[in-house]
Design brief:
Number of strands: 32
Oligomer: single chain
Mean pLDDT: 89
Shape: globular
Radius of gyration: 24 Å
Structural class: alpha+beta
Helix content: 10-25%
Strand content: 25-35%
Distance between the termini: 28 Å
Length: about 700
Amino acid sequence: MALVPLNLIFGHDGHSSRQRVTCRYRCGDACAHPAPNTSDNEYFGDIARRAMSRRSLFKALGVTVLAAGSGSALAACSAGKPGPTGSAGTAVATTPAGMNFAAVAPNIEDAVVIPAGYRQSVVISWGDLVLPGAPAFDVGRQSAAAQREQFGFNNDFAALLPIDGVPNRFLLVVNHEYTTERFMYPGYDEDNPTREQFETSVAAHGISVVEVERTPDGLKPLTGRYNRRLTAESPFLLTGPAAGSQLVRTAADPAGVVVAGSLNNCGGGLTPWGTVLSAEENFNVYFGSAQGAQAPTPADADRWKRYGIKLQPSARRWETFQDRFDLTAAPNEVNRFGYVLELNPWDPDSAPVKHTALGRFKHEGANIHVTADGTVVTYSGDDERFDYMYKFVSSKKVRPGRDAEAMAANMTILDEGTLYVAKLSSDIPADQIDGSGRLPDTSLFSGAGTWIPLLRSGPNATAESLIDGMSAQEVAVFTRFAADKAGATKMDRPEDFEANPKTGKLYVALTNNTERGAPEEPGADAANPRNDNKSGQVLEITDDHAGTSFSWNLLLVCGDPAAADTYYGGFDKSKVSPISCPDNLAFDNHGNLWIATDGNALDSNDGLFAVALEGPNRGETRQFLTVPLGAETCGPVITDDLVMVCVQHPGEHDDNSVDDPLSHWPEGGGGTARPAVVAVWKDDGQIGM
């Protein structure tokens, strides 16, 4: 396998390896512009400095003081935990079940590299048949009509759902996050896209549902009765407080209840009642206007700025083909995107819904935890520098059964309940958080937190705002403003949430934030302990799921294990696989956390890692696979005998295009680089055993 020189792939001075072309089409170069959150909300640094001042005062009076709620949390977090260099008491580290595989070394191969003894196969790739009669993929002869029947571009979240009563049959549900036209259309002119290219790209977004069969050679797609393609034109129903409001009505939809399509479907989640959740993330980049367009109203200007929406030509120029993408022609259209949607994959004729009760922001994903009494709690991060973490607590309980009546009832659960945003605190003294990532005296970054209520939603789109000066509809549509007013804590790009099915603890991927500590930007704090944070961290939360209090600590401070600013749960850093830029999360049945990365800043391709959470191995990371050149690891699915990942944007590099490719995966030879889903298994046993 030919290797590519490092300097060809990684040109970001130790920062994320994500290329500018990826940033342009996925998020509108968000990291190249000032963060849209300009609120004066407290940072941990402010909290810690105030705690330090109080500490000094009370010390002079002979009194010991702890920040509210932090005493028990810190004691619980630190007791018996391993120190910064490893062992916990006399316990001996042994390989946890599910992690017994030879770690894949960092590399820059144009291939999916897996452990020895395992096999792999491509399940489905961009352009492959989804609906019966779809034409074979031909990169030089693409059309919108074909793409509406084919697997979409840049697969992200994936779900694998067993079909009841049919052994070895599953539904594969996959999001298609965004399109990178330069890597799709030969001879593409960014300034002058054609109408056919526009319509084909619209069709390449959305969601694919494909029946698959488990065979000795992996998962094989079928043209089953559940197969379906949803695009950026398919009808989606708005539900919850924003539905029908003046904020989401347009000339094309004066009732404000039916949206054409879904955009930038990133992460997602599964519900206990058998549906799939999908999150609209960087929706802002699809909307634009002609140069010199009339200025928006002051209200729209403020709202657009907070959501990163710009009155200028968009990267794809969609506004030149359809008025709904033109901010001046249809200013409310953008308010109809940025939600968590729910799809019933078992009913191909059903319309998916967008749950506005969960708020509107750049949802990275939506993952559910169900409490003992049936309360449904949904967690989601707003994937932006210095933005927030949210949860929604349902007022309805899960109804047993999978019949049509139960499904209809359960699909309203995410319309009724309370939306919260997180505020974190810590009692770690300010002088122990210096931006270097150095561990505090407790040998653990830890603290407490509160969930602040924003919006209470009831039946039939009724709702109550819990934020002064904002209506319920405004909180649902302009949730970032509500969270600003509530005093939420600014975080380093909160992405995927995942609850450990064994312990109920939450894990949050904070991917990176190189603006932390920059001039006029917040400095380091206890949960975001490094300035110029290139590699991110993973937060562990012990939550009162249906309540409002939690404690937290950092499981991982990612990056080069040899560097002083990294922390691997207290495990011996000389024995870990280096991990950088955590993104998507999953769990295996052994209770190990699996992490997919996006933008590895350590001169290696992105990958998938298993992480031990308990005992003397806590913090041990072991790399299971790497993806090809220029690609991102997405949507991991972990079962006892199969691992599945989405390989997104293989070959994307600033110096390349479909006409001058960096990668030829998965076709090989002189073939076209195509996003694809990959399955990995072991013939003679279970994963990691």
